[in-house]
Amino acid sequence: MKHELTIASLAQIDEVAREFLKQTEGHSLIAFYAPMGSGKTTFTTAICRVLGVENDAVSSPTFSIINEYRTASGDPMFHFDFYRISKIAEAFDIGLYDYLDSGYLCIMEWPENIEEILPEETLKVTISVDEAGARHILWED
């Protein structure tokens, strides 16, 4: 089944993040495919806010590759940015499968850089930007 949510303005991003989490419930591995500047980190920040992560804790893990956050329930969630990964071995070096196998929410940016080792159950989500600047969140399950 195909799904689409639209973020017409930043004012509704938390509402869309809440609906996204509702519709993707049961998926702990979520990979965002989108070009630079399309809002992957901004949408991830909204998801974190909805889950009760402290706002100042959320940042892009471009240089660290992974950030760990705590949700309001105390559960960890993991935010990956594979933009700087140039060899699959680098993903293994951070213990990638320990995180992915944890059962906790793992949100991944730039998953195309580790595509060949993503688990089959990874939910692949595309973010596109239209001419008006609205973001379209699309996935199929």
Provide the low-confidence segments as ranges. Answer: none
* Structural class based on helices, strands and sheet pairing: alpha/beta
Q: Specify the overall morphology.
A: globular
Question: How many H/I helical runs?
Answer: 4
> Spatial order of the strands in the main sheet?
1-7-6-2-5-4-3
Measured by DSSP, the beta-strand proportion falls in 25-35%
- Major beta sheet summary: 7 strands, mixed
Radius of gyration: 14 Å
Textual characterization of the structure:
The chain is an alpha/beta fold. It is 23% helix and 28% strand. The chain is globular, with a radius of gyration of 14 Å. The termini are close together. The relative contact order is 0.24. The model has no long low-confidence stretch (mean pLDDT 93).
Break the fold down into its secondary structure elements and pairings.
Layout: E1 2-7, H1 13-23, E2 29-33, H2 40-50, E3 66-70, E4 76-81, H3 88-93, H4 96-100, E5 106-109, E6 123-129, E7 135-140
Parallel strand pairs: 2-5, 2-6, 4-5
Antiparallel strand pairs: 1-7, 3-4, 6-7
In short:
This protein has helices spanning 13-23, 40-50, 88-93, 96-100, and strands spanning 2-7, 29-33, 66-70, 76-81, 106-109, 123-129, 135-140. By secondary structure, the protein is an alpha/beta fold. It starts with a strand and ends with a strand.
